[in-house]
Amino acid sequence: MPAARFRLGRLPGKIPVGLRDLTFYAAGALPAAPPSVAVPHVADWGMLGNDTWGDCGVAGFQHNLESASAAAGESEAFPTADQVVSYYLDYTGGQDSGVVLSDFLAHVKQDGFYGHTVQAYAPVSVSDVNTLRFAIDAYGASYVGITVTQAMMDAAQGNPPWTWTLDDMQGDPIGGHCIILAGYDSNWLYGITWGAVVEIAWPAWHQMGDEAWAILSGELARGDGRGIDLAALQADLSRLTT
């Protein structure tokens, strides 16, 4: 895959004041995640415009919905690449400016996404392995952001496993990127980015991960928090926009 087809577009992350970590909303102890979760089968993840536009935040959101749907055994229709790009440009006012992931989630929760909905969302600490694994298992994926250096971008050509070293991650960042984490085992996280599944070594994740989100999408049964007090989380989210 030529370098020109790798596009970034995640703006620096933020957690809205008043929104707590996913663990705060646990209805008792979080259910234990299994030791491994396979990537749900999706026939074609698709680039979704991220070879031309910096729409990784929107493409990643659709990948999250697709992963959640496949994990639940549902068969749903999802927007085309052109529709994803159109949504992105409508959201940004026509500018290829990228998105702040939490702001974009707030927008989708309010306005929807081509008939797909978000019941709630909450941040997950990037260093909290147990909760990250729980989110992937319970909600079909985790929506995450990383910072990319030129050395990392160069090393990503050809879709090899991401086993970045500290040397790879040194140097000036060239931008932020949004991917999803759709599976894991003891050695790897399995990310979806640029239309492909990529293996990410756990040590590399601990160096590159900047933010992670659990999305309780409409692909889940309505009102099913999967161990989370959904009403309390939704109440906090509602106060962010009032």
Please tell me about this protein's structure:
The protein is an alpha+beta fold. The chain has one domain (3-240): Cysteine proteinases (Cathepsin B, Chain A, Alpha-Beta Complex), CATH 3.90.70.10. 32% of the residues lie in helices and 20% in strands. It contains 8 helices and 6 strands. Strands 1-6-2-3-4-5 form a 6-stranded antiparallel β-sheet, with helices on both faces. The longest helix is centred in the N-terminal third of the chain and has 16 residues, at 56-71. The N and C termini lie far apart (45 Å). The mean pLDDT is 92.
Question: What is the gist of this entry?
Answer:
32% of the residues lie in helices and 20% in strands. The chain has 242 residues and is α+β, with helices and mostly antiparallel strands. It has a 6-stranded antiparallel sheet, with helices on both faces.
